[in-house]
Amino acid sequence: MSFCDLAVSGVADLQPYVPGKPIAELQRQYGVKEVIKLASNENPLGPSKAALAALAQSSREITRYPDGNGYTLKMALAEKYQLVPEQITLGNGSNDVLELVARAFAAGGDEVIYSEHAFAVYPLVTKAVGAKGIVAPAKEYGHDLQAIKKCINSRTKLIFIANPNNPTGTWIAPAELKAFMEKVPENVLVVLDEAYVEYLEQWENTVAWLQDYHNLIITRTFSKAYGLAGLRVGYALSHPEVADLLNRVRQPFNVNNLAQAAAVAALSDDTYLQQARELNNTGMKQLIAGFEKMELQFIPSKGNFITVNVHSNAAEVYDDLLYEGVIVRPIANYGLPQHLRVSIGLGEENQRFLAALAKVLGRG
User: Fold this and answer.
1) CB burial readout 275-313, b (16+ within 10 A) else e
2) Pairing status of strand 305-309 against strand 326-327
3) Helix (H) or strand (E) holding 331
4) 3-state class of 100 per DSSP?
5) Minimal CA–CA distance to 349: which of 35, 40, 47?
6) What DSSP line would sit under 297-313, residue for residue?
7) Is the pLDDT of residue 291 over 70?
8) How many Cα atoms occupy the beta-carbon half-sphere of 318 within 13 Å?
9) N or C: fewer beta carbons within 10 Å in the chain?
């Protein structure tokens, strides 16, 4: 007997999500002491002082269960976005919220649409609930909304759209996205994954769209620009009825005390957010200049990462970089076997990566 025969439909065919290699693991395996990690789109600034202070205060209460409803954090989010708390669903990172959406609204026989080269979690959660994933062809490495629209039929339940997109960094202009929403049937839910939206210098207030599009779900996270990836806290903004259904399948203590406290503090720390954005802009220019010097093609990005074509087997280049103490991300599983995704780091980290890449590629 195989236990795969006992698994629910879709689970046996899943391949687990592979995160970026941890620094400690590389040090153990390769004996490299000085390691930089530019693989997981983390904020190189580290957490803000406000978040650290909130963590210290909250740590005194870790013997207590967290507030299962996340009242304080929901109130802070509601005030920031001019919503009511009943429109908010908290998650253990936005990945958790994406899974809640799939569990609440899709099942066997249903179809879920997402783009080629889009976030790997979309097919994972789709298959896990037994639904059928429909992959719309990409356009210039990003979402082709016309292609997605053509995939909609009577079996479509969900559409996942990442803006900016991970791992390509591509971005859809608000006018184009809004025109797309106008054409989506009301009984099809559109999940707008905005994990990297805070890195945009200016962006459309998509939250205001919730008044007009009740089938819109916006997901965001504190893991990227807010620098709290290790605490795992994200959220969804939606119509109250949608949020109510999501909260029915949500575990009651999915966001811990420390995460809630740090997120509340981070949410109002505009100075930190601006510093993160400025550091990212500077680092992006640094990497682009390095790629151009090596005559490497790259995909223009609106996130805190950039995807570069190394014009060879990227998995082999990735392995060679590990011996140089540099961790990046090969993305063959996204259909891009010659590309590496590189997170923006501190200036010295970016420079070390560029030097290592030039050495590995023989372009120094």
Assistant:
1) ebbebbeebbebbbebbeebebebbebbbbbbbbebeee
2) unpaired
3) strand 329-331
4) helix
5) 35
6) -EE--SSSEEEEE-SS-
7) yes
8) 24
9) N
pLDDT at res. 364: 67
Closest CA to 42 of 193, 221, 189: 221
In this prediction the pTM is 0.94
Task: Yes or no: say if 228 and 259 are a contact pair by the CB < 8 Å rule.
Answer: yes
Nearest to 62 by CA among 243, 245, 249, 260: 260
Structure-token pair, residue 2: 């195989």
Which tokens sit at 203? Answer: 């962006």
Phi-psi region of 186 (alpha: psi -120 to 50; beta: other; left: phi over 0): alpha
Tally the C-alpha atoms within 13 A of residue 35's C-alpha that lie toward its C-beta: 19
Strands 132-136 and 189-193: unpaired
Look up residue 198 and give its amino acid: E
Instruction: With beta carbons less than 8 A apart as the criterion, state whether 314 and 334 touch.
Output: no
Please give the full DSSP string across 17-74, using - where no structure is assigned.
--PPPPHHHHHHHH--SS-EE-SS---TT-S-HHHHHHHHHHGGGTTSPP-TT-HHHH
- Report yes or no: 214 and 186 within 8 Å, Cβ to Cβ: yes
SS3 190: strand
Cα-to-chain-centroid distance, residue 259: 17
DSSP character string of 61-84: GTTSPP-TT-HHHHHHHHHHHT--
Q: Compute, in degrees rounded to 10, the torsion defined by CA atoms 219, 20, 299, 161.
A: -20
Task: Kindly state the tokens that stand for 42.
Answer: 């983390």
Phi/psi at 343 (nearest 5 deg)? -75, 150
State the Cα–Cα distance between residues 145 and 178, nearest whole angstrom.
11
Q: Which two tokens stand for residue 34?
A: 């000085």
| pLDDT tens digits for range 302-358 | 999 999 999 999 999 999 999 999 999 999 999 999 999 999 999 999 999 999 999
| pLDDT interval class at 183 (50, 70, 90) | very high
